[in-house]
Write a structure and sequence with these properties.
Elements: H1 3-12, H2 14-34, E1 39-48, H3 55-75, H4 79-89, H5 95-99, E2 102-105, E3 112-119, H6 122-144, E4 155-160, H7 173-198, H8 205-209, E5 216-221, H9 232-235, H10 240-253, E6 262-268, H11 275-287, E7 293-297, H12 305-309, H13 317-321, H14 327-330, E8 332-334, E9 339-342, H15 351-355, H16 358-370, E10 373-377, H17 386-393, E11 396-402, H18 408-420, E12 425-433, H19 435-438, H20 455-471, H21 517-527, E13 537-540, E14 548-553, E15 564-568, E16 579-581, H22 600-605, E17 621-623, H23 651-656
């Protein structure tokens, strides 16, 4: 294996490594707790000889001490010294046992002895160390004898008495825990690599490359919840497993199969690798188009296609092969009619001989003439020879390899059996690949009903969405943040009793639910042709050529008090927009300012008033075409009926008679009989007719 494969194994099994390290750490810590604490106390003594009368004597004394120090270090742990210490401290042990806890060392080129004592109690270790340091001079004096009481041969002086230690030097809990963690991690790594080297099961496409050079047409993922969900192309068409079968269908289409009718046998090395489920889903994926597909259950030993699809399995392939029925008599439709199923029928005593008969050859020839693709679900290759027989009679064989079920040598044997009968190997389908082996699934776009996201994430997202909807204002559109303004709702007018001709009836239009801004604007444009204005009226103000602006005011309120201004796109003239914005009465003209007090002839001639409206002067809506103003009462109040469409007017009629200017009654004109006087909101100014 390559180094990248080793790293891939460790990366995929990171959880096992973490568990092993944690267990090792816990084991080291637990072992540290079982070890009794040990305390070490240390005492130091200095060895010298009395000063001599001359320098030569001092040199001789120093050499004598250097030669004597190793002997004194050994003497400190002898029974002659330790028995006295045991008696003095009443230790209740033997000299040999006590000697194992005492260590006497001498630093290099020094005359100092360091006496270290280890004990389970801090005070006891210090007492023993001081006792040995005090008893050593007495024992040396007894052994060497005294030449002069005032001048001993060797002087031993305690320079560093021992003190009780404040903490135990053993066990080292941190060191033992770290050592256990490293040992656990190392054991896990050795286990994983050793198992991978010894294990010969197929786990990935890379393992298949070591066995054969045949093309891997598709890789089908598998999860534990997919055990009962087998027909994924029908039940979960947007899932990644369904897309894997569609990928297999696409790859098979580009294979150069012999003849117009394509017959494919689907098999596997061993039972339980998912060949039947693969065959059924592949047939469903092929049947999604306009192709005619025939699915044949050719596994005459353990048939399962009819049971999975819920069809009748008493009659089928064996019935046709023994001559008791024709193909069209036993074929059962499934789905929308593009997929037909031929069940296995009764299990015969000689399946291999029946499949290798002339009747089977004739049946395959007839099916190839009637259908575009014929798929045969056969028995596994290694236990029986049925699949090898069918592969020789068909256009090719598709081998399904179950991940972590088939071994490398088993796949090799299955491919060899197909090559022995000169069968064509179309490709391999690696089935039941776990997400750990295949990696993350590729997801593109929205997949309703798919299984590409974990269930917990979907539930979490649903809770967040529910919380956001609960906190959003009632007027806010769905999917919009609560702090952002929602698009203005389209006014829905009340149904009109007698709508004007050519005006669409929008009374039955759906109410505002939360459309986008273009939809809201489009709805407001449609509402402009409604039979009755909504409570919030939209009145035209300060319109420039090519632009229409509206002002939102309260119903029946003064038009000169603006509340909110909205800019809308230009309303194109035509049958859907029968109104245009007129010039406000009293605007300034370039020839001296003809207004309401100007000559009436100018108004009759239809001279347009230039400039914007005079402050405080209301605007009105008049027909955009050159037609006359309808009489009062012909349309609802404040709403004239639409004029004729200039685009549909006969040009010969338009040229024979000039268009009459459109006029509106002034505020001083008397109303007609039975009609109400126009309000201040709808005082009209004279505008020319559009040609």
């Amino acid at each position: 294996m390559e180094p990248s494969e080793y790293l891939s194994i460790l990366r995929r099994n990171w959880l096992l490594l973490v568990v092993a390290a944690v267990l090792g750490f816990g084991g080291g810590y637990a072992y540290a707790q079982t070890v009794p604490p040990s305390y070490r106390a240390k005492a130091s003594v200095f060895i010298a000889v009395p000063p001599g009368a001359t320098v030569g004597e001092d040199v001789q004394g120093s050499t004598y001490v250097q030669n004597t120090v190793p002997s004194l270090a050994r003497l400190a742990v002898q029974p002659v010294v330790l028995e006295e210490v045991i008696d003095d401290l009443d230790l209740g042990t033997t000299a040999g046992s006590l000697a194992k806890t005492i260590t006497v060392e001498s630093p290099l080129d020094t005359s100092i002895l360091e006496i270290s004592v280890v004990s389970g109690e801090a005070e006891r270790s210090a007492a023993i160390a001081n006792g040995v340091a005090d008893q050593l001079p007495e024992s040396v004096a007894e052994l060497m004898g005294e030449r002069d009481a005032d001048r001993p041969a060797i002087q031993i002086t305690t320079t560093g008495p021992a003190t009780p230690p404040s903490y135990a030097f053993s066990p080292n809990t941190k060191l033992l825990a770290a050592t256990g963690m490293l040992l656990g991690l190392a054991a896990a790594v050795v286990f994983l690599l050793g198992r991978r080297i010894v294990d010969t099961r197929i786990r990935s496409v890379r393992d298949l490359r070591r066995v054969t050079d045949a093309a891997v047409l598709s890789v089908v993922r598998w999860e534990r919840r997919d055990v009962e969900d087998r027909l994924v192309v029908r039940d979960r068409p947007q899932s990644d497993r369904a897309e894997a079968f569609r990928r297999l269908r696409t790859n098979l289409r580009f294979l150069n199969l012999r003849g117009s009718g394509r017959t494919i046998v689907v098999t596997s090395s061993l039972p339980g690798e998912g060949k039947s489920v693969t065959t059924i889903n592949l047939a469903m994926a092929m049947a999604e188009g306009s192709s005619r597909i025939l699915l044949v259950d050719a596994d005459l030993r353990r048939p399962s296609v009819s049971r999975m699809l819920g069809l009748e399995g008493a009659v089928g392939l064996t019935t046709v092969l023994i001559g008791d029925a024709q193909l069209e008599d036993v074929v059962q439709p499934f789905g929308d009619g593009t997929l037909d199923v031929l069940a296995a029928g009764q299990i015969p005593p000689n399946p291999s001989e029946l499949l290798d008969s002339d009747s089977m050859v004739e049946l395959l020839r007839e099916a190839a003439l009637r259908y575009d693709v014929v798929l045969l679900d056969s028995a596994p290759l290694l236990p029986v020879t049925d699949a090898a027989v069918l592969a020789r009679l068909t256009d090719g064989a598709l081998l399904v390899v179950g991940c972590r079920k088939a071994h490398r040598h088993q796949v090799t044997e299955a491919l060899t059996s197909l090559e022995t009968v000169a069968a064509r190997i179309l490709g391999i389908v690696l089935n039941q690949v776990s997400s750990k082996e295949s990696g993350a699934a590729y997801v593109y776009g929205s997949v309703p009903g798919g299984d590409t996201r974990p269930q917990e994430r979907r539930r979490r997202g649903a809770r967040r969405t529910a919380g956001a909807d609960a906190s959003r204002p009632l007027h806010a559109a769905a999917g919009r943040a609560p702090g952002r303004p929602a698009p203005l709702p389209a006014p829905v007018p009340a149904p009109a009793d007698d709508p004007a001709p050519g005006v669409p009836d929008v009374a039955a239009a759906p109410r505002f639910v939360g459309p986008s801004l273009p939809e809201a604007l489009r709805a407001m444009e449609e509402a402009a042709g409604a039979a009755e204005r909504p409570p919030a009226a939209w009145l035209p103000v300060a319109a420039r050529p090519g632009e229409v602006r509206y002002e939102e005011t309260e119903a029946d309120g003064p038009a000169e008090v603006p509340v909110t201004t909205r800019a809308l796109p230009t309303l194109p003239p035509g049958p859907t927009d029968p109104f245009a914005v007129s010039r406000a009465e009293g605007s300034a003209a370039p020839d001296g300012g003809r207004g309401p007090g100007g000559p009436a002839a100018d108004r009759d001639a239809g001279a347009p008033a230039a400039g914007g409206p005079v402050a405080g002067t209301p605007a009105s809506v008049v027909p955009a075409t050159g037609g006359p103003v309808p009489a009062p009462g012909a349309a609802p109040q404040g709403r004239p009926a639409p004029g004729p469409d200039p685009a549909r007017t006969d040009p010969r009629q338009a040229g024979s008679a000039p268009s009459a200017p459109a006029t509106a009654p002034s505020t001083s004109a008397a109303p007609a009989d039975g009609q109400d006087a126009p309000s201040a909101h709808h005082d009209a100014a004279t505008v020319p007719a559009d040609s």
